[in-house]
């Protein structure tokens, strides 16, 4: 069970609930232009409560099996970011991937850094993971700073790694090893 975490006086992180779908859809609508250079092309339905409700429900199934942790960042009751610990593989790998974004109105305040650091601690102390990986577009220096502050190290570059903003784009690859 992933417990909610208070990151500042008003900002907290917790596992998303299906009841967060309307707030998540509103956050995506509010941040559509801001996120578009960093995300895959999305169908119009993606920005609806119905889509987000189904997506959260699917991610909660993976959460229940220990394969993912869909997390929301909240300022009071307002959803201001999404962080996904996904693709958890156990056995000798003990690894997961991390993806995230913070609302444009809250960017640059250190919230992404604080949240990623909290996730690193959670992954090590509560989930027993050995490693978390993340990737950024080559020109996403803000996200790279977030990862480096949380102890991630750049481990390479993957050509045409993900289809972002409608085209296959190169990504820098990062990892943090949680146990020696």
Automatic annotation (TrEMBL):
SUPFAM superfamilies for this protein: Acyl-CoA N-acyltransferases (Nat)
GO molecular function: protein-N-terminal-alanine acetyltransferase activity
Protein name as it appears in the record: Ribosomal-protein-alanine N-acetyltransferase
Keywords: Acyltransferase, Transferase
EC number: 2.3.1.267
GO (cellular component) term, any one: cytoplasm
One Pfam family linked to the record: Acetyltransf_3
Span of domain N-acetyltransferase: 13-174
Family: Belongs to the acetyltransferase family. RimJ subfamily.
UniProt cross-references to Gene3D superfamilies, sorted A to Z: 3.40.630.30
Cytoplasm recorded as keyword: no
